[in-house]
Amino acid sequence: MIIGVPKEVKDHESRVGVTPAGVKALVEAGHKVLVETRAGELSAMPDDEYQSAGAEIAGSAYDVWRLADMIVKVKEPVEKEYGHFREGLVLFTYLHLAPLPALTAKLLEKKVTGIAYETIRDKAGALPLLTPMSEVAGRMSVQVGAAYLEKEKGGRGVLLGGVPGVPPGNVCIIGGGIVGTNAAKVAMGMGAKVTLVDLNLNRLRELDDIFNGRVHTLASNSYNVGHATREADLVIGGVLIPGAAAPKIVTREMVSRMKKGAVIVDVAIDQGGCIETARPTTHSDPSYVVDDVVHYCVTNMPAAVPNTSTLALTNATFPYVLRLAKLGAKAAIRSDSGLQDGVNTLEGMLTCQPVAESQGKDWKPVTTLL
Questions:
Q1: pLDDT band at 370 (very low <50, low <70, confident <90, very high)
Q2: Cα separation of 110 and 84, whole Å?
């Protein structure tokens, strides 16, 4: 199989879909790898490392997309990449289709096999390819939030850890999954007072044990969320419904009652966001203010630390890349029910129910199309 690795073109997206180590393993397995020139440069993986590993360096994205049987990316294609789509192409990347009807329509029109990292499940039912970037984004959310609390960036001028004689800042984390747990670790490490909100009481019990009672856990309902956000200096949104648009847990009214200069970091923004006032931003223009509350809603936060993020992501994705290359897409999908969950589009049909429901489209289980 010919595997293509284009340079990411989303704003300030500096990760890359395959590392030189991955190229070496693919080439040793008998596959050809085309890497667009400078694709890995921002992740500290220059062209000569890819060449030494056996990759062929392509001069343009056009050549990579045109010649490859499977494209391995990091982020969902942007509009200027839609022209590369063609029938039979396998696209393996984060897709986050629920809030992107135009991308969905183009994948269906061109009959691209779209396999989304974020909906693949393992044997335990977990989301193994979403986990590493959720870990990075969760930990980054506190760093970013702490920076935006500084007066220079429009925040309240609060130091999250406080100092002797001055209380620490209050961090409210919405969602007790991978993002929330990692955010809580960093916030606690900085000395903040942390409140973690989740709908699942069993998960709250687990978190209470994990943090030995040092995190304040709170059952999610509108009253509790409203009270916790009103008291918070930093609110982190980390709610996930796999494949679907994130529910709006924090309403516009709740935001209007938050402290002046408080900060919101909505990590769920690539699935539409769980804060009603959140809208997608970029690393070029990362923040805006609503009701005197600073919002940071960058859809590809881990791209700010691309070396760490690329290595963490490809550790998880590469076994699937190798299996898809070895067996071919359809045979690999047939052989793995977890990979079947990752298929969002196949032969011009939506195959992911949450995406279909979010967009009001018809869908079919992938097994009926194989």
A1: confident
A2: 10
Query: Nearest-CA neighbor of 19 among 315, 370, 261?
Result: 315
CA within 13 Å, CB half, 196: 31
Distances (CA, A) of 74 to 130, 304, 327, 370: 11, 14, 22, 26
- Spatial contact of 92 and 275, defined as CB atoms under 8 Å apart: no
pLDDT at 41 over 90: yes
Q: How far apart are CA 233 and CA 158, in angstroms?
A: 8
Domains and CATH numbers, the chain: 2-127+306-368 (3.40.50.720), 134-304 (3.40.50.720)
The reported pTM is 0.90
**What are 254's two structure tokens?**
């709740």
Instruction: Render pLDDT for 60-81 as a digit per residue (tens, 0 to 9).
Output: 999 999 999 999 999 999 999 9
Distance of CA 310 to the CA centre of its chain: 12
Percent of the chain with pLDDT over 90: 96
The CA distance from 276 to 261, in Å, is 18
Q: Quick one: which H or E segment has residue 227?
A: helix 222-231
Whole-angstrom Cα distance, residue 322 to residue 328? 10
Catalytic residues: 96, 270
